Amino acid sequence: MLVLHQFEISPFCDKIRRILHVKNVPYQVREVPLSRALTDVRKVNRIGKLPALEDEGRVIADSTDIAHYLEHKFPTPPLLPADPRERALCHVLEDWADESLYFYEMTLRFALPHNRRRWLPELTRHDPGWFRALAPALGGVLFGRIVRAQGIGRKPIPALIADVERHVAAVDGLLGDGDWLVGGALSLADIAVFAQLSCIRGSDEGGPLIASRPRVAAWLASVDEATRGGA
Length: 231
Ligand SMILES: N[C@@H](CCC(=O)N[C@@H](CS)C(=O)NCC(=O)O)C(=O)O
Prior knowledge:
There is one protein chain. It is built from ten helices and four strands; from the N terminus they run βαβαββαααααααα. The chain is 63% helix and 8% strand. It has a four-stranded mixed sheet, with helices on one face. Strand 1 (2-6), helix 1 (11-22) and strand 2 (27-31) form a beta-alpha-beta unit. Bound molecules: glutathione.
């Protein structure tokens, strides 16, 4: 059986769980506690990030590579559009979600102290007490460093929120009168953007922003409905 090595609340791991559910593929989860990330993740894959998918001894890392692997191995229902232009747009949106929206969700949930107080206990839910006790002191330093190095973390908060507002407006515009981001069916683009936006929605700033866009909120509910697992 496939084994998904994950951090439960990682948007990338959510993305892969949802793909597996859509394709109705059974899998086991191996949760890596954050306190073991430095030692255990590199044993699973050399990139040192999760998710990683293990299939009979073969390990695939990176959610995009995993998505393509799963598409090849379990083609039904397809999540990559057949039409070349739609497929290209799907790729661009997935990459935007993974490489841009991700840093907004990380900044909002983990660099802003009021959101971090809520999300750090979730992030360290699988860790021992001593690590959970250290997390509040370490979390701000660690995530602050990452998002400042990336650049988004150097923006003043109003500018950060204006960026997120533009991103959510872009999703609204892309949806237009349609149900899905690309073409007429659920695709990898919907799942990838959903995974990041639902984390953004989990911040004090992102929640109201998304609620003010009924079309985006309705689309999030539809993607959730179409991709949620039974468990
Ligand atoms: N491009 C990767 C990103 C995965 C990623 O950044 N995962 C984070 C958790 S959300 C991680 O493992 N971080 C640990 C690290 O960077 O050391 C993907 O699509 O899978």
